[in-house]
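4.2 Preliminary Data

To establish feasibility before requesting continued support, the project team ran the inverse folding procedure on a target of 170 residues. The structure was first converted into the token representation described in Section 3, and no sequence information of any kind was made available to the design step. The complete token record follows.
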């Protein structure tokens, strides 16, 4: 049984989610069961629904109910925070019962940025994972406290910004 690594893709550049989805495809092709839990993407029906065709090898979960991004919400924000925390609790459950071989927590670092969860909460998730489970986390900012817990860290930065404003490039 190979050791599952803790990988972090972070930075201001585009491609963190795409990189994690690429890894999901590679792992699925190796007959590993992959769970993807997406945070801070809004309800976002449609953009990644094509991954549902890859079930049961890749299962994608979103707990947010609002169409808008969390940062753009006003009165719905508290209810959406509860939905997001349900996703975090689902990740804990998945790790505690060993439900998959690869767990991708897309934009979980953004939850730390927004104060929805803490670095300690992320560290608890990392410590819960079985040694064989690969854990991939993404987000814009990487808190220094998490660096010692990662086996692999990749930073994606913007070198030229012509694509950064176009939604089709995300």
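Position-by-position output of the design step:
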């Amino acid at each position: 049984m190979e050791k599952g690594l803790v990988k972090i893709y972070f930075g201001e550049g585009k491609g963190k989610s795409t990189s994690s989805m690429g890894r999901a495809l590679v792992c699925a092709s190796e007959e590993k069961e992959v769970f993807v839990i997406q945070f801070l993407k809004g309800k976002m029906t449609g953009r990644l629904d094509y991954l549902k065709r890859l079930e049961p090898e890749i299962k994608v979960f979103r707990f947010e109910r609002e169409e808008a991004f969390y940062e753009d919400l006003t009165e719905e924000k508290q209810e959406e925070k509860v939905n997001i925390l349900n996703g975090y609790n689902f990740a804990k459950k998945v790790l505690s019962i060993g439900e998959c071989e690869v767990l991708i927590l897309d934009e979980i670092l953004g939850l730390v940025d927004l104060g929805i969860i803490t670095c300690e909460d992320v560290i608890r998730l990392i410590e819960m994972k079985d040694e064989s489970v690969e854990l991939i986390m993404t987000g814009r900012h990487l808190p220094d406290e998490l660096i010692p817990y990662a086996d692999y860290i990749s930073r994606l930065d913007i070198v030229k910004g012509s694509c950064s404003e176009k939604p089709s490039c995300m």
